[in-house]
């Protein structure tokens, strides 16, 4: 009786081993696409007296530093808007300013987890206007650090009177 138990155990173990070695492999490496790959967009900055900047800019989401607002992430994950980092309008403005040597400033609002763009090339609203952000002709429904840009998008910061 003991031999029968041992034999059954060996047969079961051998059968299980064969089943496992002959089963197709189902574990595959999971590849997550890079959602924050740089994209090329057209950026336009329209002030009250005309065009302040227009050009193509390569951008991705990144930390942004302003004189007034300090350093904060600006990669689409702000306010839980996107699950992973993505290129954003404010990051595009920041990249253009650094690469084309102009200034911009913004106030950081922790309650919105985003910047308010206050000045671009020393042009501010002064309480009578604000910098509206639009993508492909439509105002963004969220802040400039929350909106996901795609390659070829047309991003505009437009001085807009109240």
Automatic annotation (TrEMBL):
Extent of the signal sequence: 1-27
Keyword Signal annotated: yes
Transmembrane segments: none
Record-linked Gene3D superfamilies: 2.170.130.30
InterPro entries given in the database record: TAT_signal, Transcobalamin-like_C
Keywords from the named record: Signal
Keyword Transmembrane helix: no
Domain of life: Bacteria
Transcobalamin-like C-terminal domain boundaries: 122-160
Protein name from the UniProt record: DUF4430 domain-containing protein
Native species: Streptomyces antibioticus
């Amino acid at each position: 009786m003991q031999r029968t138990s041992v034999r059954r155990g060996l047969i079961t173990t051998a059968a299980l081993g064969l089943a496992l070695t002959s089963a197709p492999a189902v574990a595959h490496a999971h590849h997550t696409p890079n959602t924050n790959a740089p994209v090329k967009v057209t950026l336009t900055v329209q002030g009250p007296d005309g065009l302040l900047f227009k050009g193509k800019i390569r951008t991705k989401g990144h930390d942004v530093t302003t004189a007034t607002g300090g350093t904060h992430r600006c990669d689409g994950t702000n306010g839980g808007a996107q699950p992973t980092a993505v290129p954003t309008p404010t990051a595009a403005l920041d990249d253009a300013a650094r690469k084309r040597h102009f200034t911009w400033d913004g106030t950081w609002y922790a309650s919105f987890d985003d910047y308010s763009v206050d000045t671009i090339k020393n042009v501010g609203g002064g309480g009578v206007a604000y910098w509206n952000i639009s993508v492909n002709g439509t105002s963004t429904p969220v802040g400039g650090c929350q909106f996901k840009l795609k390659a070829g998008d047309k991003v505009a910061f437009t001085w807009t009177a109240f």
